[in-house]
Design goal:
By secondary structure, this protein is of the alpha/beta class.
């Protein structure tokens, strides 16, 4: 039987919190500045408390009976030892058995030199008298142990790197030597004492920001420590389960996965920038960040619900794209726009569009760059809130022309021309946020590689928020080659996992030479991470049934892809594996790499086969639609009788769309047997087998479980 705290359907704790019968006690403590000068100051603990308090306020807005107590540098009640003890005693004396307690601490932890016991350092802690002026972990756990509250969650963000970061925010240089370590790592001792506490209580759970020998990293672009940043995002809805509940186990798995992924993305970006430096003869390289692995200590089987996904939760960053196709609205750029909208999370504007002619293109670009500038200055960002970096993507496709004075022109439809110097000027006016600039240049046979490099050199901006430049040049005989390559590399990415531009560039660098594409790239800005596909997106494609691309494509208008398969209502269309494979193959002949995404979406929405064929035909140009309908209908008529005979429960599993809810369930169930690595195993299987059936997907995951009985039990639970 799985632990109730890990996906149980027993929501007694949730019900009592929602009705107010039980009370949620929240104590948040953060220390930036220490009176003892030998204790290094930290940047973000106070902001961490502010942001976490705001996130918890939204996540628990459905809990009428709660109390939040906050102690940090900017709060009315400072984080001193006396204040913390007083607040703890209040919670212990007033809490009841049905209540829940959440305690969060961000600051330094130290080992008392004589006893080697862990101590949490508060604002008035002195290094030479830790037990007298700090809060010993043993004391803290004894206080919590005296509370009758059955559910307790302790979050510790200690072992901070603080200002001892590998890369300065604007310095552009690495720190020399090893990572300074003025304070010993307390994680080992913390884990030992927390395990003992957890063994005594079924309802106790502790989350630590890092493992033994690791640092808890702070990133200015996040505005928080990375551990707490993802705690906040998880509480704002990204860690909610399929029912909208946010519980301790799910929150930990989300924070674990996102922390590792973020540091990995930062390192991918640093690696690519270092390679650029080496190519230019610069040996002054940036250091990559060591691993930070959040840990969980739990022995019990009690459910610990923290909150609900806020009704207004928005999981996507502010992202806007402008796609300009100077080759008169070709198929691949329409598909790119569709993919940028769905898997990329962008609000996309495509040009050409109805009601505008090419003479207005400069104004369209200027309006786009003004949005970039205004989105920063007009934002109402509050200290401590989740800090999102807005991202702007500009895709331009057209013919290029170089003239004698060194100027270059991008020639679009109707003879419209954009000079390189004008484009450079517009980009430099929009330096406040991330930029992804993709130039798809159609060249003559005499066009040299050096002139392509000039576009990269001229368009570079010194923005602290990061800029990615990707310039691909192909000859006029293959005008669709580069856009098709972009589409191929993006269409196979799992939208829940996402793709940073550093990894994407590496893929393109390997692929371009094999296709005869002249590729030049540039990546600036050490941080923040720039994503072409941000991940955590369930919406995959937008409704694109018009013959021409809609003028503006809004994110979030399409529901989640997925559903059962039968033949009666939207989202329940049954296809055999053979029918699905043949239909996908046919659609690829017309639409290319985007076909699997479109097919999944339409299968989930069509009420019957005839409607499916009609909807798919709507993606094609009129001259192709009739032929496609005949071919698709013939495919769906094959083995119809046998398909209907297999429509019982067991055969329904032969092919089902693997949607976001099922993926989440797989991660949760698999984690019982193999731990937090389950999320990475699920990701690996999805990436390795993008068109795998649901049954095969579950079987592949079961193979990762070493105990045969547990593997069989996992398979059974997945189809309950």
């Amino acid at each position: 039987m799985p632990p109730l705290g890990v996906g149980s359907s027993d929501f007694t704790n949730t019900t009592t919190l929602k009705t107010g019968e039980a009370k949620l006690w929240i104590l948040l403590v953060g220390v930036n500045e220490y009176r003892d000068q030998s204790l290094p100051s930290l940047r973000y603990p106070a902001l961490d408390c502010q942001g976490l308090g705001e996130a918890l306020s939204k996540a628990t807005q459905g809990f009428p009976n709660k109390e939040v107590i906050v102690h940090h540098d900017f709060a009315a009640q400072p984080p001193t030892l006396q204040m913390i003890r007083s607040s703890l005693q209040k919670i212990v004396s007033q809490s009841r058995s049905q209540d829940s307690i959440l305690l969060y601490f961000s600051g330094h932890g130290m080992l008392e030199p004589n006893t080697q016991q862990a101590v949490l350092c508060l604002a008035d802690t002195h290094r030479d008298d830790l037990f007298g002026t700090g809060l010993g972990m043993q004391e803290l756990l004894e206080i919590l142990g005296s509370s009758p509250a059955n559910q307790q969650l302790l979050c510790l963000d200690t072992c901070h790197s603080g200002d001892m970061r590998l890369v300065g925010k604007n310095s552009g240089s690495a720190r020399d030597g090893n990572i300074p370590s003025t304070l010993p790592n307390t994680t080992t001792q913390l884990m030992d004492v927390l395990r003992k506490r957890a063994a005594q209580s079924k309802g106790f759970c502790a989350l630590l920001s890092c493992d033994q020998g690791q640092q808890s990293w702070e990133f200015p672009e996040l505005g928080h420590g990375v551990f707490t940043y993802y705690l906040m995002r998880g509480l704002l809805g990204e860690a909610a389960d399929s029912n909208g509940f946010i519980e301790a186990d799910g929150l930990y798995k989300y924070v674990y996965r996102q922390t590792l992924q973020y540091i990995n993305k930062v390192n991918q970006q640093l690696h690519l920038i270092n390679q650029q430096k080496l190519n230019r003869g610069d040996s002054h390289l940036y250091r990559e960040y060591p691993l930070q692995t959040p840990k969980r200590i739990v022995e019990g089987v009690g459910e610990l619900i923290i909150g609900y996904k806020p009704a207004e939760a928005e999981c996507h960053k502010q992202r806007r794209a402008l796609v300009i196709d100077g080759l008169s609205n070709k198929k691949t750029t329409i598909n790119l726009s569709l993919l940028f909208t769905g898997a990329g999370g962008f609000e996309v504007e495509h040009f050409p569009q109805k009601g505008k002619n090419w003479s207005e293109i400069r104004g369209t670009i200027q309006e786009f760059t003004r949005w970039q500038s205004e989105s920063k200055t007009n934002s109402s960002f509050q200290p401590g809130a989740v800090k999102d970096t807005a991202t702007a993507l500009l895709y331009l496709r057209g013919y290029v022309e170089e003239i004698e004075d060194g100027e270059a022109w991008l020639i679009l439809s109707d003879g419209m021309r954009l000079s390189r110097s004008w484009l450079r000027q517009e980009l430099r006016r929009a330096q406040q946020i991330q930029q992804i600039i993709i130039l798809d240049l159609i060249t003559s046979d005499s066009y040299s590689a050096s002139t392509v490099e000039n576009w990269i050199e001229d368009l570079q901006c010194g923005t602290e928020h990061g800029q990615c430049l990707i310039v691909g040049a192909t000859d006029a005989h293959k005008p669709e080659l580069f856009s098709q390559t972009l589409l191929e590399t993006l269409a196979v990415v799992n939208p829940q996992v996402g793709l940073p531009v550093a990894k994407w560039i590496t893929q393109l660098q390997k692929l371009a030479p094999t296709k005869g594409i002249k590729l030049h790239t540039w990546l600036s800005g050490i941080q923040p991470v720039i994503d072409i596909l941000p991940g955590n997106i369930s919406t995959i494609v937008h409704d694109f049934r018009e013959q021409k691309v809609p003028d503006k494509i809004k994110v979030g208008e399409v529901g989640e892809v997925g559903g059962r398969i039968s033949d009666s209502s939207p989202g329940t269309l049954f296809l055999s594996s053979e029918q699905y494979a043949n239909l996908e193959k046919l659609l690829k002949q017309y639409l290319g790499a985007i076909a699997p995404i479109i097919l999944q979406k339409e299968i989930a929405q069509a009420a019957n086969r005839q409607e499916l064929v009609e909807n798919l035909a709507g993606y094609l140009i009129p001259q192709q639609q009739q032929q496609f309908k005949k071919q698709a209908t013939a495919i769906l008529e094959i083995s119809t009788v046998s398909s209907q005979a297999q429509s019982d429960k067991s055969s329904t599993r032969e092919y089902q769309i693997i949607d976001a809810k099922f993926v989440s369930k797989c991660e949760r169930e698999l984690a019982y047997s193999i731990g937090p690595i389950a999320s990475f195993i699920v990701k690996e299987v999805l990436q390795s087998h993008p068109q795998i059936s649901l049954q095969e997907f579950v079987n592949n995951l079961a193979k990762k479980i070493p105990q045969p009985k547990q593997a069989i039990e996992f398979q059974r639970r997945m189809f309950e």
